[in-house]
UniProtKB/TrEMBL annotation:
It comes from the Bacteria. InterPro entries: P-loop_NTPase, Terminase_6C. The keyword Chloroplast does not apply. Residues 251-402 form the Terminase large subunit gp17-like C-terminal domain. This is Large terminase phage packaging protein. Keywords: Viral release from host cell. Pfam families: Terminase_6C (PF17289), Terminase_6N (PF03237).
Length: 420
């Protein structure tokens, strides 16, 4: 009877128990408070603990990866549903703060890592991992890739991923992988352990909304309501073969500031075939060279490198925020760069709509590897941008296609006034 509170299999909800069969990654999708953290913590226990406190378990070296080290410590380790709270006294691990790791009585260890520092996973090796809130990570792909290279110990290294679903490319790719199994549950499933009145309040406020479907129902919402672009539309425009292009440009949406907390600098490379009638003109989005947390000189160099790599004929940059300073920064890197400044006189949605119309007409094609850009595109709606932060990549895309197709086509159609 004394052991009963620690027997999770007895108390667990169905979505909190790992599926049977041969899998590499177990993804637990759930709404807020659905019991994801408890499931992850108990999974770690099941991997490292043996039949008796000093017996070896299935895993000996575990990676604990969260958005930040603080979140690993406060949620995954010391949280109310974390590893320490779930462990019986005779099996409770010790937290070594200076080494950012847990060590169990049987010698098993779990090392904490931050998704803000993917390179921190370069070198260590593991036979298992618990990944928390992957859909929130800004460097999800880089961190996930580094973790995969480190999962090289034991006979069958596995990963448990606990996350609220969000429309991000890394999560969607993971869910589509053949080696992934998924369990899911809404917040409602865990109502017995939630504060009285919480569900009534959040349901009243968010039921039927996109945010409610995501945060309460644990549903992966592929697109925003009223989105200008949809995943299906973007999938149809995928292109593996790029023809000879008549023009190539690089468009830049500079961040307001250059410090570490500023927005990304959107940098998009696109080209077009403009031979023949205007209705036959087509564009190809070639690359997303956007950079994060770069100084003005840093993003200017990234834009110039993109021009050189793709043989672009012009650099187009929005100057609403920086004015003449934007061109000055770019010319400090390359004084002779062909440059055109553009000024946004209309809102983001108004500028984006003519470009979205080109997609609807099937006149824009995408190279592969544009996941981050496409995620932002699917969050741009007729009401505005519904994603996180600023749609810098989408802004750069709009400027590029406006330069290549929208403005030239408008001039081509404009009736000429003859002198008399």
């Amino acid at each position: 009877m004394l052991a009963l509170p620690w027997l999770f299999e007895f108390w667990a909800l169905e979505h909190q128990l790992p599926p049977e069969g041969d899998w590499r990654t177990w993804v637990i999708l759930g709404g807020r408070g659905a019991g994801k953290t408890r499931a992850g913590a108990e999974w770690v226990r099941a991997q490292v603990e043996g039949a008796r406190p000093l017996d070896a378990g299935r895993c000996h070296r575990i990676a604990l990866v969260g958005e930040t080290i603080d979140q690993v410590r406060e949620v995954m380790v010391f949280g109310e549903s974390g590893i320490m709270a779930c462990s019986p006294p005779d099996r409770r691990p010790e937290w070594q703060a200076t080494r950012k790791r847990l060590i169990w009585p049987n010698g098993a260890t779990a090392q904490a890592f931050s998704a803000h520092d993917p390179e921190g996973l370069r070198g260590p090796q593991f036979d298992g991992a618990w990944v928390d809130e992957l859909a929130k990570w800004k460097k999800a792909r880089e961190t996930w890739d580094m973790l995969q290279f480190g999962l090289r110990l034991g006979e069958d290294p596995r990963v448990c991923v606990t996350t609220t679903p969000r429309n991000v490319g890394m999560l969607k790719e993971l869910l589509a992988a053949g080696s992934t199994v998924v369990t899911s549950a809404p917040t409602e499933a865990n109502r017995a352990y939630l504060a009285e009145g919480f569900l009534e309040e959040v349901r009243a406020r968010y039921a039927g909304t996109r945010l409610g479907r995501q945060e309460l129902d644990g549903v992966l919402v592929d697109e925003a309501e009223g989105a200008l672009w949809t995943p299906a539309m973007l999938e149809r425009c995928r292109a593996d073969v790029i023809p000879e292009l008549d023009r190539i440009v690089v468009a830049v949406d500079p961040p307001m500031t250059g410090h570490g907390g500023s927005d990304e600098c959107g940098i998009v490379v696109a080209g077009a075939v403009t031979r023949g009638p205007v209705q036959d003109w087509r564009a190809w989005v070639l690359a997303d060279a956007s950079v994060s947390s770069a100084s003005p000189a840093g993003w200017a160099k990234a834009a110039i490198r993109a021009m050189e790599r793709w043989g672009a004929e012009r650099l187009v940059a929005e100057v609403n925020q920086g004015g003449d300073l934007v061109e000055q920064v770019i010319r400090q890197v390359d004084p002779l760069v062909p440059f055109r400044s553009v000024h946004a006189s209309r809102g983001k949605v108004a500028r984006a709509e003519p470009v979205a119309a080109l997609y609807e007409q099937g006149r824009v094609h995408h190279a592969r590897g544009l996941g981050a850009l496409e995620d932002q595109m699917c969050a741009m709606t007729a009401r505005g941008f519904e994603g996180r932060g600023s749609p810098d990549r989408v802004d750069a895309l709009v400027w590029a296609l406006t330069e290549l197709i929208v403005e030239p086509a408008a001039k081509w159609r404009r009736p000429q006034v003859r002198a008399v």
